[in-house]
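Table S2 (text version). Query chain:
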Amino acid sequence: MLTPLGAGCGVLAGLAIAVPGLIEAFTGETAPTSFVLGLSPAFAVPLLTVLHLRQATAAGAFGAVAYTVNAVGLGLFGGAAFTLNLALFFLDDAVTKELLRGPAAVALQGSALVFAAGAVLFGVAMLRAGSHPRVPAVAYLVALPVLAVAARLPDTPLTSLVHVVAGGSLVWLSLGVTRARQDATVNSSA
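Corresponding structure-token output:
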């Protein structure tokens, strides 16, 4: 039961990143797109777990470390994304700049760096294990760290493209997990 739920959450997470990113390429950041982006990391947690469980044996100890760093980074960066998109977005720029000084700035930058490192490690683990489709695993390895580092940059067509690629990789990986599960069910029935 965990696999279909995790894969479904992964599709939601991917769409919650890609669709607002695509819209923002034309409109810039809006309250609705910011709202959806702020919630997206919560849906990624079950997917990350399902991806790891599917490759745990093949990924070995490195995969377990990569999963752990990525999970901690996702928790930290998820909090940062929630704060940036659902709280700070609605504040005056002067207030936001004041809030993002000192410890808050360090915490936000640190969360992005831990998430980026975790995404790189987990992307490498996916590629080494060979349990997931290669193209979205590479996109995960590249786009998610760039997304984390670019979180505080102004919205541009390039940052929108990164959102679309990152979200697309999550959807593709989710569908890959679902297909693999269906194939395993068909093969065990035969």
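Notes on Table S2: The CA atoms of residues 70 and 119 lie 6 Å apart. The first helix runs from residue 2 to 27.
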